[in-house]
Specification:
By secondary structure, the protein is of the alpha+beta class. The protein has four helices and eight strands; from the N terminus they run βααββββαβββα.
Length: 171
Amino acid sequence: MEQSLFVEQIVARRNPPMTKVTLGIMVALTVFVGLNGILFLQPVILVMFLILLALLYFMYLQVNIEYEYSVTDGELDIDIIRWQRKRKHLLTIPMESVVVIAPGKSEPVSAYSGRNLKTYDCTAHDATHRYYTLVFKPQGSTTEEKLLFEPDERVLDNLWRKAPSKVHKEA
């Protein structure tokens, strides 16, 4: 009887340097337009305020993002977590549908780099971190898709145990 394996890892996405500056400008602009809308009671200014408020909300949703990688019995689950409280399931990839897992620009995945594949980028966006490319064929689909992620050794080892010929730890 095979023992059930469960490993998880959380990777926090790094925000671009200009993010805080852009958010600060948006907050200041939204407050300025909101105060003018209240003071002058102009419907156009109030509509602009509501539009800016909606834009600000969607910008804030993109700021504090983490990805959770979970490996359970040969399935890789990817969840996206916003502001450490709002979780959304992104992908479930069974190892049977995986074509190859290898370091980002290595030879095993180089054949897929020029192709126009649907890509899920679940990396930290940090140049110092090593990322891996996972190419898979979703069930019921004829085209392949690509996942960019940053698994640690535990995640890679558990994926390798399920499909050693598909996982290339070093390239």
